[in-house]
Amino acid sequence: MEEAVTKPKPPLKIAEEDGSCPAVERIPDLQGALPQATLLIQNLQEGEVHAVHPELGPGGSWKPNDCQARDKIAVIIPYRDRQTHLTRLIDFLIPILQRQRLDFRFIVTEQYGNDLFNKGRIMNAAFIFAESLGVDCVVFHDVDMFPQDDRNPYSCPPGPRHLGAFVSNLGYQLWYKEIVGGVLAVSMSDYRAVNGYSNQFWAWGGEDDDMGQRILSLNYTIERPNPETGRYSMLKHVKRKRTAPKLIYKLLGNSANRVAYDGLNETDKWTIRKVTTRPLYYHLYVDVGEVPEEWRAKA
Ligand code: UDP
Ligand code: MN
């Protein structure tokens, strides 16, 4: 009697002629729309995530071995007191970035102390750290943004690319043209060209719109995915108070002027107090300095 022989499947051939990984549009094993069931936020320990991904190197780093990655990226996550979101997000992103065949690592940038949040400063600090890792671009990624489709490219963009364009809580609509909040990919040279984020926004709101205006003021176009692949679920969290709307609007009235002097070049506005290389991410503790009186008065 003949035995049934199961032929082993030939491994999927990924690499292009020159050995490099294909661009996202040509990767054959992406899934498209992703199930969102995992977003039920139960606590997930970092150790559990690491145990499922022993292939990750220090700082949650990884690169494909079936082709030569085109881009070396750092995912920068601004963070304070949202542990359950953080571990879930990293767990969710790892397989997506692996399927996209990117050379990646994670940088969690946490503000030191309990004072008013300054997202611009902790982003600038993390960017400087990312430069020291020799990456080609950074992807700024709010901790509560979960992609709904793995065809949205996390690769390095030729100009600023707003990945987080269509968000569940915002009715999957783009509300205004300078919007770049949530998830933004930018090359090292473009981030330098816009002088990074403003250091002047405290508490909630403004810094992202200011970034959008910086980008547009230098005549870049903001690239966006299409409305299907660019969908994100934003997790629920306590809404932070917009403490000083008048100060925010005043600043947003002169974003283009501030590009020259308010941003990455003011390196005395923050100090990286501590860097820890953890199994899933580099952890930065960033001191953002004193809150100015006019902002504190409103808090
Ligand atoms: N963030 C954080 N803890 C905070 C406030 C902000 O981790 O207490 C980070 C987190 O990455 C978050 C991002 O900053 O996704 C933007 O803040 P938030 O989600 O509160 O802004 P909103 O969704 O209201 O625009
Ligand atoms: Mn949010």
From TrEMBL:
Lineage, broadest ranks: Eukaryota, Metazoa, Ecdysozoa, Nematoda, Chromadorea
The organism of origin for this protein: Caenorhabditis tropicalis
Name of the protein: Beta-1,4-galactosyltransferase 2
Alphabetical list of Gene3D superfamilies matching this protein: Spore Coat Polysaccharide Biosynthesis Protein SpsA, Chain A
Database matches in Pfam families: Glyco_transf_7C (PF02709), Glyco_transf_7N (PF13733)
Every Galactosyltransferase C-terminal domain range: 161-237
Protein family: Belongs to the glycosyltransferase 7 family.
GO BP: any one term: glycosphingolipid biosynthetic process
Membrane topology: Single-pass type II membrane protein
